[in-house]
Every structure is written in C-alpha cells, then in structure tokens.
Amino acid sequence: MSPSSAAVAEMLGGWRTLGIQIRTTSELAAAVEAGLPVASLEIVVRRVAGETRRATEIKHRVVPKSTLQRRRDRLSTEESMRLERLARLTAFAEQVWDEPELAHEFLKSPQPQLDGEKPIGLIRTDLGTRSVEELLWSLEYSLPA
C-alpha cells in the first residue's frame, strides 16, 4: 500500500511546518498548488541525506541553486510538485524497508531496474516517479521487476 497523504504531509514537516493539517489527497494537492514552505525542502532532504554534500545535490535537484537563493518563504507549484514526489517516494521506500537508512540508500543509489538511474534523480518528472513507484511495488510484494 502506498503512503497516505497524511504520511506524505508528515514527511514534509507536518502541521508545524505546513501550517495546516493534511488528511486527504485533495488537501495535499491544494497545499502543493499554493506552494510548499521552503522549510519542507530542508526537512525532507535532511531526512534522506543528513547534512552532507549529497543533501545539497538532492536539494538542488528539487530547486536549482540560483532559484533557491531567491526563495524566501514558499516554493513554486512546480518545485512543490517535485518536493511532494520526493516526500512520497521517501515515505514509500521507508514503508518497504523497515530501516529508514536502507530506504534512503535505495533512493540515492543507481538501480539496475531503472536503467542504472538513482531513484532520487527521477523525481523531476511524473513518469520517472511512476517508474520508481512500480519498482517499490514490486519490492513490496516480491514481484519480478
């Protein structure tokens, strides 16, 4: 089962960061459309990669460095969509693996089933994200990839 919208919202920092309680997909969609807080980006990236150089690379995959320097409070809708994808894939990977460290390593490592791509690099598009979700589904249910 893929993560709920509430679980994705928690991954994004929960009500303290988002400023609202999110329980449904439509509430999450409205928050993404309005622009997620820049702080949510920091929270998700820190969870996946800690305080490393790799964290900076991941952050700039979601929002380019020059653009991020101009962002004060909220991300654009497009940037928020990429961040939501990252949060959703992170929540899903953590669900598949019982140990978050293993889930995060999966997200950051090249995967043969994804033509050698790193799952985290595929968040830029919906199709890329779907490919990672399909792989996670096959891992969750022990299906051939």
Notes on the protein architecture:
This protein is mainly alpha-helical. It has one domain (5-140). The protein is built from nine helices and no strands.
Radius of gyration: 14 Å
Intertermini distance: 17 Å
Q: Total number of helical segments?
A: 9
Biggest sheet features = none
What proportion strand? under 5%
Number of domains: 1
Question: What's the helical proportion of residues?
Answer: 55-70%
Number of strand elements: 0
Order of helices and strands: HHHHHHHHH
Shape from CA axes?
Answer: globular
| Poorly predicted sequence stretches spanning 5 or more consecutive residues | none
Mean pLDDT: 93
Secondary-structure-based class equals: mainly alpha
Topology of helices and strands:
Layout (H helix, E strand, L loop, with lengths): L4 H7 L2 H5 L6 H10 L3 H12 L3 H10 L2 H6 L6 H20 L3 H9 L17 H15 L5
Describe the structure using short key phrases.
145 residues, 9 helices, 65% helix, 0% strand
Could you give a quick summary of the protein structure above?
This protein is mainly α.
